[in-house]
């Protein structure tokens, strides 16, 4: 655990990548809220139809699926399915002290893959395009986990 400090460049790399991913994850939630407010709909829970200061004119149509809102919600769900694996594999990677160049390629590569996936999703690219960026990110996390296992077991 000596390497969990800011004098370790691998940990700094992990900290920067993790902070960027936190901003991505939390920002996507705010993007969904923005889109719900913009279209005055895309709500998912029946209690959202109660009259409140933020919803002064509730109506049943606000519960209809709105692709503009739902696309952001799907992007958020995708982040929630993928980013936590990076956080765990990345933290373990710091502990086993990989070469800095490898850590930077993998960790910043994952951030870039998630950013590219988000752009592809937001701009309605085909599944093939989104899957390419997902695959890159997924293979990075799998490699990191295997690297950690190799470092510990051999």
From TrEMBL:
GO cellular component: membrane
Gene Ontology MF, one: glutathione transferase activity
Alphabetized SUPFAM superfamilies for the sequence: MAPEG domain-like (SSF161084)
EC number: 2.5.1.18
Substrates-to-products reaction catalysed: RX + glutathione = an S-substituted glutathione + a halide anion + H(+)
Membrane-topology annotation of the record: Multi-pass membrane protein
Record-linked InterPro entries: MAPEG-like_dom_sf, Membr-assoc_MAPEG, MGST1-like
Membrane-crossing segments per the record: 6-27, 83-111, 131-153
Compartments, record wording: Endoplasmic reticulum membrane
Keywords: Acetylation, Endoplasmic reticulum, Membrane, Transferase, Transmembrane, Transmembrane helix
Matching PANTHER family: MICROSOMAL GLUTATHIONE S-TRANSFERASE 1 (PTHR10689)
Functional note: Conjugation of reduced glutathione to a wide number of exogenous and endogenous hydrophobic electrophiles.
Assembly notes: Homotrimer; The trimer binds only one molecule of glutathione.
Name listed for the protein in its UniProt record: Microsomal glutathione S-transferase 1
Originating species: Ruegeria sp. PrR005
Lineage: Bacteria, Pseudomonadati, Pseudomonadota, Alphaproteobacteria, Rhodobacterales
């Amino acid at each position: 655990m000596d390497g969990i400090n800011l004098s370790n460049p691998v940990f700094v790399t992990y900290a920067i990548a993790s902070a960027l991913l936190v901003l991505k994850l939390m920002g996507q939630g705010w993007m969904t809220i923005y889109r719900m407010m913009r279209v005055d709909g895309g709500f998912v829970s029946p209690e959202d139809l109660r009259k409140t200061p933020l919803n002064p004119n509730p109506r049943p149509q606000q519960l209809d699926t709105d692709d503009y809102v739902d696309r952001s919600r799907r992007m958020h769900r995708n982040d929630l399915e993928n980013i936590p694996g990076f956080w765990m594999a990345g933290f373990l990677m710091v502990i086993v002290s990989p070469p800095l160049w490898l850590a930077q390629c993998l960790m910043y590569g994952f951030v870039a893959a998630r950013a590219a996936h988000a752009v592809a999703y937001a701009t309605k690219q085909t599944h093939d395009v989104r899957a390419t960026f997902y695959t890159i990110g997924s293979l990075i996390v799998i490699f990191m986990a295997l690297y950690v296992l190799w470092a510990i077991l051999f």
